[in-house]
Amino acid sequence: MWTTVLPVPILLGLDSDTFYIYHVAAGFQQMLSDMDMGYISTVIVKDSSRLGRNYLEVGKYTDYYFPEHNIRFIAINDCVDSDNGEDDFGAFRNVMNEMYAKDISRKVKSAFKAKALRGEYTGAYPPYGYDRDPNDRHKLVPNQYAWVIKEIFQMALAGKSCSIIAKELGEKQVLRPQAYLHEKFGTFASDIVLTYPYAWDHSTVRAILMNQVYIGNMVHFRTGTQNFKSKKMIWKPETDWVVVEGTHEALVDAETFWTVQERIKVKQPGKKRSENNIFRGIMFCGECGKRMAFCSRKKDERRKSLGTFSCNANRRYGGKVCTTHYISLEQVKAIVLADIRRHAMLAAEDTDAYADYLMGLSQAGQLNEQKAMKKELDAAQRRLSELTTLVQRIYEDNVFGRLSDDLYQTLSAKYEAETK
Fold first, then answer.
1. Beta carbons of 132 and 139 less than 8 angstroms apart
2. If both were cysteines, with which of 10, 185, 245, 285 could 311 make a disulfide (CB 3.0 to 4.6 Å apart)?
C-alpha cells in the first residue's frame, strides 16, 4: 500500500486499485513505525477504503491513532480532511466498505459452489496420480504415477501400515507428492523436499488412502474459513462436504477403497515409552540441532547400557544431513551429574559470586535468544506481509475479471501453502 516512505514529514498514500481487509502489509507497518517516530504528519489516500475494509480497524486509526499522534488524514474521493473536523459519516462509510468486501466474498464462494455441484475440479494442483485434462482443465485424467496409487492401496489391503508403505516407496525411489509438484510446477521448494525427494511420510500415505478422488468422486469444501476476515483454514464436518460421484476415471475400485477405510480406522497400539529415558525431549544433536532419538535396550552381560541417543535426522535421511554418531544413556547421566556437582561446589565456595555468574549467563542467553527470535520473526512478518498483499491483489483481479479462475486457484494455493 505504502511501499516507500519519503524522507519528508508527509506520506503520500495514493495506491493502486487493490483494497485491503487487513493491516499487515509491509508498507503499512512501515508507515506506523515512521509515525511513531514522528516522521509523518499527513496520510493521504484515494478514498477511505484504501486505508482498509475492516471497519473496526479503520475506526481505530482514524478516531484514535491519528489524532493521538497529531496526524492529518485525507481521503480525496470521500472529501475527508481531519483538519476540517470530525467525519460524521465516517463510521457508516467504513461499514459499507466492509460490506462490499463481504459481498464479493459471498459471490466468489457462490461461484465455487456452483462449480463443485457440477463436479468440476477447482484445486490449484491435481491430486497425486492425476493430471488436468488438456481439453478441460476442470477434469482429471490419470498420469504416469497412477500405478503408485494402485500399489499403495494394494499394500494397505494386504495389511501393511502407513509407515511400512512409506518406507517401501522410499526404497523404490518413488517421488513423494511434494517433490512431484516441485518437479512439475516449481512449488514446495524446501530443503527437505529438494534433498530427499523420495522420503515419504506415513501421514502422506494416510491422506492418499482416505481421499475419495481415487474412486472417481470429487469432494469439495472439506476445509474452509470461519468468515471472510479470517485466513485460518479449518476442517469442516462431512455434512458440509459436496460429493459428486463418477466425475473422472477411478484408480481404485470402491470395494477396495472402503475396505481400506475400515482398516486404517483401527489405531495401532502405540509404542511403549522407556522409563529409562529421563532426558526425553531435551536432547538435541550438537551438529545439526535436530532432536536425538532414544533407542532402549535390555541390560544384560553383553550390553552394559540401557539405551543410546542418536541423531534423528541421520536415522531418517542418512549421512547427507548429519553424521552417524551416538552417546549412551549412562554417558549422558555421568556428564550431567558432573556438571551438577561442579555447580554445587561453586555455589558452596562463594554464593554471591555464583549467583552473579548465573544471572549473567541467564541475561546473556536471554538476550541472544531474543535477538535470534526477533530476527526470525521480522523475516517471517515481512514475508507474510508480502504474501497477504499478493493474495489480496490476485483476489481482486479475479473478482474483476483480470485473472482467470484457474490461474487464481493456482496462485492462491501456492501463496497459502507458503504461509503454513
1. yes
2. 285
> In 3D, which of 73, 68, 98 has the Cα closest to residue 83?
73
Task: Going residue by residue through the chain, which has 420 residues, state the pLDDT in tens, using 9 for 90 and above.
Answer: 333 333 333 344 433 333 333 344 567 777 778 888 888 888 888 888 888 778 788 888 888 888 888 888 888 888 888 888 887 777 878 888 888 878 888 888 888 888 888 888 888 888 999 998 888 888 899 999 999 999 999 999 988 888 889 889 988 889 888 888 888 877 766 666 677 788 888 888 998 999 999 999 888 887 777 777 777 777 788 888 888 888 899 999 999 999 998 888 765 554 556 677 788 878 888 888 888 888 877 665 566 778 888 888 887 776 767 888 888 888 888 888 998 898 888 888 888 888 887 787 777 777 777 777 777 777 777 777 777 777 777 777 777 777 777 777 777 777 776 666
61-81: b (≥16 Cβ within 10 Å) or e: bbeebbeeeebebbbeebebe
User: What is the signed CA dihedral for 243, 245, 246, 252, rounded to 10 degrees?
Assistant: 90
- 386-419 burial: b if 16+ Cβ within 10 Å, else e: ebbbbbbbbbbbbeeeebebeebbbbbebbeeee
Q: Whole-angstrom distance between the N-terminal and C-terminal Cα of the chain?
A: 24
CA distance 157 to 203: 17
pTM: 0.57
Q: Across the chain, which distance is largest between two alpha carbons, in Å? A: 91
Cβ burial, residue 200 (10 Å; 0-12/13-18/19+): buried
Neighbour order of strands in the sheet with 307-311: 292-296, 307-311, 326-328
Helix intervals (H) in 118-201 = 146-157, 162-171, 177-185, 191-195
CA dihedral 91, 94, 98, 100 (to 10 degrees): 120
